[in-house]
Amino acid sequence: MLGTQNNTVVDASASNDDAAAASNSVVLFGKYEILKLLGVGASGKVYHARRVDTGESVAIKAVSKRHLDGRDGYAYAAQIEREISIMRRMRHPHTVRLFEVLATKAKIYYVMEYAAGGELLRRVSADGRMTENLARRYFQQLISAVAYCHSHGVFHRDLKLENLLVDENMDLKVTDFGLSAGRSQVGSDGLLHTVCGTPAYVAPEILAKKGYRGVSVDIWSCGVILFTLVAGYLPFNDYNITLLYRKIYRGQFRYPKWVSSEFKHLVSRLLDRDPETRITIDEIMKDPWFCRGGYKYPTRVMPELDEDHVVVKDLNAFDLISFSSGFDISGLMTHSEYLNCVERFVSKEKPERILERVKGMVGKVERVVVRKDENAIIGVKLEGLDGNFVIAVRIYRLMSELVVIEVKRKEKKVGGGNFWRTLLRPLLLELALLHESAPK
Asked: Could you tell me the pTM of the whole model?
């Protein structure tokens, strides 16, 4: 029996998700037949499934909600929201696409593109390595995906061979954005500060714990991946984690005797210990080894963001779907202390004028700051300095004369909604032609 609760699709019969998913006869939410378990990771289990209506294969990642009520529940919820928000935006030939997000009482399910070829490591030869020509092909696809992510303000931060898949055409697919960061996570010093990643792939500046640039650490990880594909072993490896980090920090590794001098030159620049002199994406794309045999960047499927101008995105079919319960995850992020809500307003006002008035409203109160919203082409985040609330205001063009103002709020159940109720909401109602409320 299926029902809806808080605008989230719920499978009321799924009392034991793991036991259910182990059976080939299980159909989740009446839509996806579970076929087999593909793998188990730190963040959840991944299954191969089939759409009941079309027969299309999908991958479903099941993430437990048990950590949401723990001491770090709010941070865990924020991480899940960030991962889903980032994956929604990834529409590139070499990144795994997210189709839908669903939930039961115990789990959150990511319905994603299925990579039929499995892990890239399966493409290596019997002696555990690739030819430089084959490795070049996959490295070109990896760099095109990473360049796309960076151009959209996304830093993966956990690039490794285990997170590279291939599809039925043997083309690369980057997956697992669980540790990814957006520009909103960048500090006032222009750097990221969260220590994360897989030890053998982590950049030396992360180990220094003085802040790092997301672009640079992703390039370092790409260097580790390229070396490993051709050499058949990791450049930095040791059972003793302290010795491993010492090797990384000192840049101590050896090339195998069979690699070309051009390959060595590129890898030496990818694994440059100094992030300031490390090779850039643009320089990689001009490198002789990289360009051998020809290289053409894939056609972008999303518009580039021009940060110097205000651009309002026209809503396409995918974006309209993203407003539905399948992508509205605020109801999944329940936390005992916080309330999550979504409201939308249709207006004839110009987006620039709407933002002006929102920012003007903030100026009337103390202890509320305005930040850029990295998940929107035009939008802002309003944050109470006392931690009582976060409000994301995003604007999308519905048609030539109409826009949708989407407001997502996360506020404390006690004392967190005064700014919204008394100032911001009345303003948006004044600007609105239509209004939809969806409290979570």
From this structure: 0.69
